[in-house]
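Co-fold these.
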Amino acid sequence: MGIAELYMEEQSQPVLQTYQLTVNYDKTPVLWDISLEIPKGLLVGIIGPNGAGKSTFIKTALGLINPLSGKVEFFGKPLKAVRQRVAYVPQRESVDWDFPITVLDLVLMGRYGKLGLFHWPSSDDKAAAIRYLDMVDMSQYGHRQISQLSGGQQQRVFIARALFQEADIYFLDEPFTAIDLATERIIVDLLCRLKEQGKTVFVVHHDLSSVESYFDWVIMLNMRLIACGSIAKAFNPQNLALTYGKSYALFDEALKLSQNKTTGLT
Amino acid sequence: MCLCAAIVGVFIFLRKQSLLGESLSHAAYPGVIIGVMLAGMFQVSDSQSLAIPLLIMSGAFISAIIGLWVIHFLEHKVKIRSDAALCFVLSSFFGIGITFASEIQSSHGVLYKQVQVYLYGQAATMTDIHIIIYGFFSVLVVGVVFSLQKELQVMIFDRDYAKSLAIPVKRIDTTIFILVVLAVVIGIRSVGVVLMSAMLIAPAAAARQFTNKLSVMLSLAAFFGIISGFLGNYFSIEGSLYLSKQYPGVRLSIPTGPMIVVVAAAICLFSLFFAPERGLIVRLIRIARFRYQCLYENVLKTFWRSSGQDGVSIESLAKYQTISQTYLHLILYQMSRKEWIAHEENGLYRLTTKGQQQASKVVRLHRLWEVYLANYLGVGAERVHCNAEEMEHILTPELEQELTLLLNDPKIDPHHQPIPPKE
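Predicted complex below.
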C-alpha cells in the first residue's frame, strides 16, 4: 500500500476503540464491559464519581494495567505498534517530587523511550525541550529542582514533557486538580492548539461545571459505560443522574457483599 | 568495591529501599558457609588457589539471590509489607548461616577461620586473586549502571510513565537487583556481612545533600565511596602502627573493614550537618540570622513610632519586644555602631537621620503590604497588621517596586497612617 492509501485508511479508523474491556483490582471489578469508539481530533473529557475507574481506564488503555478481558486498539492497531504516538501525563500525586532532578531533565525524559538504551539526548533534543518549556511559560525555571515548584508549575512541566513526545494521542490524568488559574488557562489553550493540529486528547476531569466549555466529547463512567458521545448528545441531566446518582445503589450493595465474601488475608 | 557499592547504593537509596542492602548481605552469609563447606569437602586447602574465593563468592551470590527471591515472593504473592519481608529474610537467613557456622566450628576449625573473615571483613589478608576477581566485577557493575542511567532515572521517579514509554521496567529492575547482590557479595570480603549496608547507603545519603542532579549525585557518591576506602585503609594501617608504638605490650590493631565504614559514616554525618543549603547546621544558622534580622527591624520600627519625643529609654523599648535585656542591649549596641541611633546623656536613645531612613524603609514595606492585602485581596483592615508584621522582613526591593506600581504609590495605609515615601 502506498503512503496515501495508508493515510486514508487511518483517517477512517477511530483513534481509540475498546471492546468489552473489563478490569479487576484483586477480585473487585473496577471497569465492566466498556466498549467505545472515539473519532479523531477531539478533546474528550472522562468523567465520573470517585472510584468510577477513570484513571484505571487510562492506565489500561496505556497497557499499565492488564485487563481481565477485552481489547484496546489505537487506529485499529494494538498499543505495541503505536506506542511512540501515545503520550501520558500521570497524576501529580503519583510521583516522588523529592527526587533529584531539574525541570529541564524532567522534560527530556519524554524522549527516553524514542532514544532507547545507550543513547543520550542530543543538543537538538535539549533545544526542543526548552522550546516546549517556553510554551508552558516555564523556560526560566529550567535548572530548578522540581521539589521547589508549586503545584501549577509542576503540572505545567508534566505537560511540557508530554508535548515533547510529539505524539498523536494524549492522555492526561486529572491535570486540573489543585492548580492556579493562570496554569489552568495555559493548559486549556495548549489543549485547543493540539486539537487544531489534529491530535486527540483524553482528559480525566472532575469539575462538572467546566465540562461543556472545555470538551467536545465526553465519556461518562461509573464502572460501566454510562454514555459516550458529543457533549450535545451525551452530556445531559439523565446521563449525569445515572453516572453520579443512586440508581446503581443496588449494584453497589451486591458488589460490597461479593467483596466481603472474597477477601481473604489481604 | 567501595566505588561499586556506592554507585549501586545511590539507586537503592533513591528508591527508598535502604534496608535492602542490609537484608541481602545477611542473606549472603549462609551461602558463604556453604561455599566453605564445599571447599572443605573437595579438600581444597591451598589458600592461594582460585577455588576458595570463587566458591565462596558463588555461594554467597546464590544464597543472596534466593533471599531476594523470597523477599519478592513475600511482598507480591503473600502481600507482606516491604520492611517486614526484608527483616524476615535478614534474620532467618542469618540465623541459618550461624547454625551452619557453629557446625563448621567444631568439625573444620581451619575453614571456620575463613568464614569469620566474611562476617566482619578482613581486607588486609586479601590476595591478588581476590583483587582481580573483585575488580573485574566492580567494573562490570559500574559499567552497566552508567549505561542504564537515564532509564533508571525515569523508573524510580515515575514508574508508570516509564512503562508508558515502553521502557522494559521489569527487566531493568531484575538487572539492578542482580547488580546489588554482586556489589554486596564483592564487598563482604573487605567490610563484612554485618557492616556492608553502610557502604551502600552512606555515600549515597551524603551525596544527596550536595546536589539535585542524578549524574552529579552518582559521581559524588562514587567519590565518597573511594575516599572512604582509601582513608579507611590508611587510618587502619597508620592507627595500628601508632597504637603498637604507644602500647607495645598489648596487641592492638585497627581492623580495616570497620575503619572504612567509620570514615564513610563520618563523611555522611558531616554532609547531613554542614552541606551548603541542605545541611542541618547550615539551616539552623540561616533561621537564626533571619530571626535576628526580624528583631532588629522591629526595634527600628519601635524607634520610628516613638519619634517626636526626645528619646526612648530601654525600658519602654523592652516593653514592646519580648526579648531579654542583654539581647536588647546587643541590638542597640550594633545599631549605634552603624550610627543609626545615638545615645544621649540622659540615658535615652534617639534615631539618627540614617536610622530614620532605615526605619522608614521597613515601615513603608509594612504599610504597602497592608494596602495590598486590604485593597486587592479584600482582607479586613483589622487583620492585615499581623501578616504585614511578617512580610515586612521578606519583601525584596523588586517586590517593593512592583507593589508601588500596582497600588499607584499609595500615601495612606488601611489604618489611615501615612506611608513613608521611597528615597
